C-alpha cells in the first residue's frame, strides 16, 4: 500500500493586505472584466502589479550577490526536496529581534541525533507569522518609506549561523516565517550576503510552519519564473508523510 501524505500550504495569499518591504511597491489587483457577457457566459480577468520582494517570495542569489543566479537560473533541485524545521518559537515569541544562532542549529542536530542532511531545505520556525498581515506587529512599524527602515523589528538568522551553515552543511535552500532572513534591525544584511553569495536561495514570509515536523518532509517551492529577476512571488507546499 502506498504511503499517504498530507499537503500543507506555506504561502500567504496576495491581496491588498500583503506585507511588503517598507520601500517596495505593494500588490494591486485591477479588474479588467468581471461579470456576465452579452453572449451568456460569465467571464473574469484581472491585471496585477507587484514588487518582486513581498508576501511569500523567493530571494534569488543575484539579489545580494553580483553574478550569481537569477530567479530563472535557480536549479529546481534547490527548490524541491527533503526539508527540516528548526523550531525557535519559544525563544522568539517575546523577542522580535531574536537571532537564530549556531547553538539553535547544533541543538536541532543533538535533538534529532543527526547532522542537518546534505542537500536539505532548512526552514526556521519563529512563530512570527502569527502577526501577519498586521504590519505594526509583523514589521515593527506600519509606516512606509526610507524613514521606516530604522523602525523594523522581526527575527532573523544571525550572520554567524549563516556562515556556519555555509562552512559546515551543504544545504540547498533556507526559509523562514519573517519578512527577511536578516533581522529587522540589520543594516548590512550579512546573512543575505553570505547565503546568496553561495547560490543558496532564501524563502521569506512563510506561514503554517507550526504544522510541520522537525524532519521527514518535502518542500516544493516554485517561484514565478522571472527572467533575470532578483526575486519572485513564491508558492510553497510541504508534503508530510503519515
Automatic annotation (TrEMBL):
Which residue windows are coiled coil? none
Task: Kindly list the GO molecular function terms attached to this UniProt entry.
Answer: arylformamidase activity
One GO biological process term: L-tryptophan catabolic process to kynurenine
Organism superkingdom: Bacteria
- Which Pfam families does UniProt cross-reference here? Cyclase
**Name the record gives this protein:** Cyclase
Query: Taxonomic lineage per UniProt?
Result: Bacteria, Pseudomonadati, Bacteroidota, Flavobacteriia, Flavobacteriales
